[in-house]
Write a structure and sequence with these properties.
Elements lengths: L2 H39 L3 H29 L1 H19 L5 H29 L2 H28 L1 H4 L1 H9 L2 H8 L6 H6 L7 H9 L4 H22 L2 H7 L4 H12 L2 H12 L4 H21 L3 H25 L6 H31 L4 H22 L10
Length: 401
């Protein structure tokens, strides 16, 4: 590998990673902001659930629409449009005065976020050589942990003293710098190589994703994405609020979630190390089973020590699995439908992200026990792991076409 290409890859990882970091800051802070809004605006648990779900509805629409666009106008252009949408929406939401206004902006933010993540991983996958591709995409995902960590710090130090509005402005402003850096990125060489070919319609691309020889991969991905997103947003969006339900103050719950968040980084780094040595399937299945066990023990934890230990393991395994998911998804399709395939899988997954927070809100309102809720998420994660085990194919070292 020549030096220029090596520098380009590092630059690509840094610029794409910055966008990932700011997105994670926003999503991470949303869980804390929901808890703060509940006190400021006197929200019901159903309304709290809807805030998380409207975000996921936007992500589902964004992943689908921008995934199609990535195969039409290029990965780079969609990369810029989605971050712009996210940044503007996030900044404006700081000035929300009603729940309706806040939720409309959350939908737009969700569109940008949902569109950006699968397109970013597709762009990086198409530029990085096969022997390093999985590792680099997981490292790209590790910026998410950095964003969550910053969001936890901002939430702990800023929200109680200066309010959730200030926290949102802090998260939005630096994203414009990432936008500036992104304009100078090259587009994917694989997209550039095939963009002068005969254009097929968006509908033909959608049909191709479900046609042979992609039927099995698409089925596996859609089950996997749904289960992972359903459980992630159901658990993590409610994490500070669940800590409050378990008897801790809002400040204490922020503090404990911050400790749990630190475990995300080693989760990513170990997944990045294993993914090129033991393969995508091994990392996904192992880390998902680890997530399921951690979720079960977190739900049933009856002491602070067990609660924090289970929470740390939950963060470690769940985010490692997310890194492998983003590495694995683009590898299932050829370049001509890669954006569409990755976007559709992510979009279907976001439907799970709609139901997860809503389900928790519904169950909390009916005073269903926390262990029961986490048992549901445990089962969902196991189903996702089984879909990879029985339907997934290993893509380690596969050259993308």
């Amino acid at each position: 590998m020549n030096t220029t290409k090596s520098v380009t890859q590092k630059r690509l990882l840094g610029i794409a990673g910055l966008g990932w970091l700011f997105d994670a800051m926003d999503v991470g802070m949303l869980s804390f902001i929901i808890a703060a809004l509940q006190k400021d605006w006197g929200l019901t648990t159903e309304q709290m659930g809807w805030i998380g779900s409207i975000n996921s509805i936007g992500m589902a629409v964004g992943a689908f629409a921008f995934g199609l666009m990535a195969d039409r106008i290029g990965r780079k252009n969609v990369f810029i449009i989605t971050l712009l949408l996210f940044s503007v929406g996030s900044g404006l939401s700081a000035f929300s005065t009603t729940l309706t206004m806040f939720m409309i902006l959350r939908f737009l933010i969700g569109m940008g976020l949902g569109g950006e993540l699968p397109v970013a991983s597709t762009l990086v996958s198409e530029i990085v050589p096969a022997e390093k591709r999985g590792q680099v995409v997981v490292l790209l995902e590790s910026f998410w942990a950095g964003g969550w960590l910053i969001s936890a710090l901002i939430s702990f130090f800023i929200i109680p003293k200066y309010g959730w509005e200030t926290a949102l402005l802090i998260s939005a402003l630096p994203a414009f710098y990432a936008l500036y850096l992104r304009v100078k990125l090259p587009d994917s060489p694989q997209f550039l190589a095939q963009k002068h070919n005969v254009k097929v319609s968006a509908l033909e691309n959608i049909v191709a994703v479900w046609a042979k020889p992609h039927t099995t991969q698409t089925t596996m991905l859609w089950i996997l994405w749904f289960c992972v997103v359903f459980s992630y947003y159901g658990m993590f969006m409610w994490l500070p609020s669940v800590m409050v339900m378990k008897g801790f103050s809002l400040i204490k719950s922020f503090q404990y979630v911050l400790i749990m968040t630190l475990a995300q980084l080693p989760g990513y780094f170990t997944a990045a190390w294993f993914i090129e040595r033991l393969g995508r399937k091994f990392v996904l299945v192992t880390y998902l089973i680890g997530t399921a066990l951690s979720a079960y023990f977190f739900g049933f934890a009856d002491s602070l020590g067990l609660l924090i230990t289970a929470g740390i393991l939950l963060s470690f395994f769940n985010l490692g699995a997310w890194g492998a998911l983003y590495a694995y998804t683009p590898e299932q399709y050829p370049a001509v439908i890669r954006g569409t395939g990755a976007g559709m899988a992510a979009s279907f997954g976001r439907i799970g992200g709609i139901f997860g927070p809503l389900l928790v809100g519904y169950l909390v309102a009916r005073e269903v026990a926390i262990p029961t809720m986490f048992t549901i998420f445990t089962i969902a994660i196991v189903v996702g792991a089984l879909s990879v085990l029985f339907l997934g194919k290993e893509t380690k070292n596969t050259e993308l076409t």
